[in-house]
């Protein structure tokens, strides 16, 4: 009786210790990435050159010809947690049309945009939720690095969703990217949509997000 109890205890100990040495399915499953939508999108607007236009509307415009951009946008992410690793900027344009974008989001023949990582000014508290993005046409951000280009679709319906990474690099508490229509293009271009990748309920996600901790 005591002999079989002894074996039972040994077996139980082995189940507990041996099981802990084998990875559980939860440990083997790929870790889900964390994502974050923009905190603010600043429109740099040549016809309102001193205005701070912060919201979540992404807008670009060029009239056509050399140096003809009149609207650029700075997409800013805040509150990226300390210790976050492997930050990536993702663009996510769903198959159009959607309920909130019943028509095309872009028009013209010059809808390729250049993407720049910018250097935000140092802040005493980088997690301050009340800071204002003070960027305007006359006070543009400081460009750090050209990172990629992306072409906004001018058709609707589109054939397929468009989702790709435009940048990857070191996480910072705040990350901002400037978008402007590429100046080598001859044609005019216009892009305009409301970025809903911040978890806006009921709207089809469209726009930019930071993906990290994958
Ligand atoms: C740019 O400024 C003009 C003039 O104030 C305004 O009509 C237009 O809506 C603005 N566009 C954007 C995207 O800020
Ligand atoms: C200046 C401005 O519009 N700031 C906004 C930035 O985004 C946060 C979060 O969405 C808003 O609370 C601020 O009002």
Question: Could you characterize the architecture of this molecule?
Answer:
- With 214 residues, the chain is mainly beta.
- The chain has one domain.
- The chain is 11% helix and 38% strand.
- The chain has two helices and 13 strands, in the order H-H-E-E-E-E-E-E-E-E-E-E-E-E-E.
- It has helices spanning 2-21, 25-28; strands spanning 34-36, 40-45, 53-55, 57-62, 69-77, 87-93, 106-108, 112-119, 142-151, 162-169, 175-181, 189-194, 207-212.
- Strands 2, 3, 4, 5, 7, 8, 9, 11 and 12 form a nine-stranded antiparallel β-sheet that branches. A four-stranded antiparallel β-sheet has the order 1-13-6-10, with no helix packed on it.
- A hairpin with a 6-residue loop joins strand 4 and strand 5.
- The longest helix has 20 residues, at 2-21.
- Bound molecules: 2-acetamido-2-deoxy-beta-D-glucopyranose (2 copies).
- This is Ubiquitin 3 binding protein But2 C-terminal domain-containing protein.
- Keywords: Signal.
